[in-house]
Amino acid sequence: MDASSQEETPLDAIDLALLNQLQHDAWLSNQDLAAKVHVSPPTCLRRVKRLREAGLIERQIAILSTDRLAAVLGHGLQAVVEITLERQGQEEQEAFETRVIADESVQQCYRVSPGPDFILVVHAWDMPDYLALAQRLFTSDANVRNVKAFFSVRRAKFQPSVPLARPRS
Length: 169
Prior knowledge:
alpha+beta; 2 domains; four-stranded antiparallel sheet; 4 strands
């Protein structure tokens, strides 16, 4: 859904409770979800459908256990990469962003300021695979001025949920 064509969806406490439950466990059945937020199953279904149609729920995915997969597939390399472009015009930034987000090895892409222009989180099978990724995405792009990669030695936290209430001061 195009963000410019969506109307703002007002959210009440039930909507926020539904979103909170779903972002922590999207496998809940409609009946279990309804019970957790204290609404009827038809109401729950209707509200979740409305939240999806409004684009507030982008998609539902499975978060895989990297530690358990490592025993089967190998650990691979996770890197946080800072990218600085030579020219930072809108067209140049969009061209770079379009190219990197199309690459399956790029897990996350952020435009940032100040400092580098982009921060990427990338995954590679091993160092030769990372070098191929760097050649494909960075070295071959004449507009990439600087690349700084930080390789993860341990992931202490991974939390994809979004806080839905402001902390009290």
